[in-house]
Amino acid sequence: KFAEGESASQKVIFNYPQERELIISAYSLLGNCQYNQEKYEEALSTFQALAEKYPGSNLIPAALLRMGECYEQLGDDDESFSVFRTIVRDFAGFERADFAQWKIASYFIKKEDYTQAALELENLISNFPGSSYLLDAYYWRGWSFYKLDNFLQAGAA
């Protein structure tokens, strides 16, 4: 089904170049179809094209999120981090900005930079009080404090 969606999206992009909203949706669908087929480099290129050609689109935050996930799948953690940071900085109201903040914190946990991880987890807890990542954030904030030998804060987390 994703291959069919990919083909249909490409046809829309080719056949209706003047239909802005249709093209934007087609780029988004194309990128997601490519991503779901594990064609991460192609998906990344598609989402980059969407972001470059239609910077004011309301689909930009979702495109950036997928770009971050593509970079992550391709093993480029630094680029992934940069994209997730852009989402949190520029699109804090985006419905999945909490996920981007979680990915930022996870980046520092992976790098064993527990001081920065604790700060980023605190940002998640403070800025996204309804997030589904809160329990994980509290756990990993406590773990980060523990790794920093800050046992009092680790126990309070």
UniProtKB/TrEMBL annotation:
Signal peptide span: none
Pfam families: TPR_6 (PF13174)
PROSITE patterns in the cross-refs: TPR
Entries under InterPro entries matching the protein: TPR-like_helical_dom_sf, TPR_rpt
Protein name (database record): Uncharacterized protein
